[in-house]
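Escalated from tier 1: adenosine monophosphate holo job.
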Amino acid sequence: MRLFDTLTRTERDLRPIDGSTYRFYCCGPTVYGPAHIGNFRTFVLQDVLRRVLETGGTRTLHVRNITDVDDKTIRDSQKAGQSLTDFTRGWTEKFHADCDKLGLLAPHIEPGAVEHIPQQIEMIRQLVEKGHAYASDDGSVYFKISSFPGYGRLSHLDERELDLGKTQNARANADEYEKDSVSDFVLWKARRPEDGDNFWASPWGEGRPGWHLECSAMIREYLGEDFDLHSGGVDLVFPHHENEIAQSVCSCGGHFAAHWFHITHLLVDGGKMSKSLGNLYTLEDLEKRGHSAMEVRYVLIGGHYRKQLNFTLDSLTAAREALAKLAKGARHLASKCGGEVVLDSVSFGPFQAAWDSLNDDLNTPAALGGLFTGLRETSQLTGRDAAAALAGLNRVLRALGLSLPEEKDEAVEIPEHIRALAETRWQARLSKNWAESDRLRAELTELGWLMKDGKESYELSQA
Ligand code: AMP
Ligand code: ZN
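Tier 2 regenerated the structure:
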């Protein structure tokens, strides 16, 4: 499989460094509210990457963290009058429930920042010892970016218009800071009154870790100094990932991630999502409007990850129709198998092009297109050929993480005259006019509709 790499700006092969397991890390959610569909664009694409690797026979080790302590979680837990632990537990559970509905595979390891305070303190200690970090008067500790010549390679800082002279001696203490300035960033934040109970002891006094540090510490704990791939939304390239590289390389040595996979942002109605504009959607918002999580997933994989994707409510309706069409095609193919079953096939048959698209820089829209083209090619297949094609289709669907709607979920339009015939027959049956009832049933069957009688009503289905 080939995938674009942010650092080298080239498409490169994905092969496990250790020759056996592809080990990758994704920056996870900050659990202070429900994740929005932009966040899920990133998580869904990371899930497709994993599924494609696994479908292609590569074992994976997927680590994704939970940010359960930072400026926002502390602020909002206090607003909610809850302890930080209770507050973040609730939002973590909500995140997991949304992930399940969207068909996201659970990461193999999902570490939380609070559980890894000692590892973060140890990393700061090493950075201070090696001259890459310094304590300020208030007891905070900063990373000294002038001590790391590699700073800025990932985000190609040298090509950007930054006033380095002006910003070099600046320091940033907030977890998130201006994207157009380069500054020493905080590793340990000295305790402030507004932190409430949320502080820990350290060699530099009470406080808590800076946001950028947790990923570096957890990566070292679970993946070591060199690992295969690191991923997040494109907003994380700078400064978050740049800072992670600085922290990890300067404290432990090693190369850190061999490959960087960044997902471009989701836009809504052509612009940035924001609460104030009323266009920030969560999965629950869309479910309340009658859409399924699979429809949302379909929309999210409907654009290439390196391009902006514009979400509209209409795109969900189009996704519903596309999923119904795929389901119908899959059922037709299944009906042609004549009892033959091919459980897993190494070839993809008519769905080879769809599979190839996934391996070519994770081109999900091309893969979706390939499913429809493949289905058209299968229309004449029967027996074992149909069964093999069905196995190929199912493999690509698995790689995309799509489950197709059951037949009953599809809204089958019953024509008015059929409905009228059925109603007349039901009345005949109720008045025990058996001959007329039988005649009308036969007429319905002739027209391709089956009428199943219940005690109090009936059901119509297509024959
Ligand atoms: P957060 O919970 O804010 O730390 O974000 C979780 C993930 O979602 C990160 O990888 C972000 O880069 C990503 N993300 C945030 N907003 C968007 C968006 N509009 N489209 C795609 N990914 C996003
Ligand atoms: Zn991170």
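Residues 27, 29-30, 38-39, 41-42, 232-233, 235-236, 263, 265-266, 273 surround adenosine monophosphate (ligand 1) (CB under 6 Å).
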